[in-house]
Design a protein that fits this description.
This protein is an all-alpha fold. The protein is built from 10 helices and 2 strands. The N and C termini lie far apart (about 60 Å).
Length: about 240
């Protein structure tokens, strides 16, 4: 009974953490948007409320399996997460971050592409595309079925691929920030990155905005690798219709 209570508390705590993290990060970038792009979200109050509603529902769907895994790691040693920085070579830390991001990106690309098939789009993904245009609050605005498809990726990876707790924190931070900045309606990365060689492989808001305009292509989350490999890379979008 004690273990069950701790398990429930862990799931509830992680749900709260995911929800609060969403509110803080999306709120911060929404505030930055109002400072940098005054009027960009004018008239979108109803849409933003809907984005927050769906995102907080997604927080529970993401938080529960994460809480269960966190409990199993701490109490039963289930996972490959390690605390001792010297347990593996230091060079493995950045490698593990990249491996996790690439694995997550691969899952996201193929499930996102599936979500644009007519049945799945109508059943689930249409919720995300109801944001026209998306705002900083839309990063987790998913139908529960879609949220469920992404909720088990990182929790599953920690059973397979060793990762330092700090590196895992870096992965989650990148996931959160990229999810928000890619939807907030303006490009926060400098032009030399977006239009340079690095921008040929990294996804930024200018790339993802094209997806929301065209409703096809540009399916990746962090990298343009799978879009380029599969012929679905539509290139960069245009902000000409947005205030600058």
């Amino acid at each position: 009974m004690d273990s069950l209570r701790v398990l429930i508390m862990s799931a509830a705590a992680m749900t709260a953490i995911v929800g609060i993290r969403y509110l803080l990060v999306s709120g911060a970038f929404a505030w930055a948007t109002r400072v940098r792009e005054p009027g960009l979200y004018t008239g979108l109050d109803k849409q933003i409320k809907s984005e927050i509603k769906w995102s907080l529902a997604s927080a529970a769907i993401y938080g529960i399996p994460a809480g269960i895994v966190a409990w199993g790691w701490d109490s039963l040693g289930w996972t490959q997460i390690y605390r001792d920085i010297d347990a593996l070579p230091l060079w493995y830390l950045p490698v593990s971050v990249f491996v996790y991001l690439f694995a997550h990106d691969t899952w996201f690309y193929w499930t996102h592409r599936l979500m644009h098939r007519p049945f799945w789009f109508k059943a689930a993904h249409a919720v995300h595309h109801e944001s026209r245009p998306p705002t900083a609050w839309a990063a987790m605005a998913f139908h529960p079925w879609e949220a469920l498809s992404g909720a088990f990726v990182i929790p599953a990876l920690v059973f397979i691929i060793p990762v330092h707790v700090g590196a895992l924190g870096a992965v989650l931070a990148i996931m959160t920030i990229m999810g928000v900045t890619n939807h907030m309606g303006w490009e926060c990365f400098p032009k030399f990155i977006v239009n340079g060689k690095l921008g040929q492989w990294l996804i930024t808001a200018t790339h993802h905005q094209k997806h929301h305009d065209a409703y096809r292509g540009n399916y990746g989350l962090y990298f343009r690798f799978w879009d380029k490999m599969c012929g679905t890379d539509l290139g960069l979008g245009s902000w000409s219709h947005r205030p600058r």
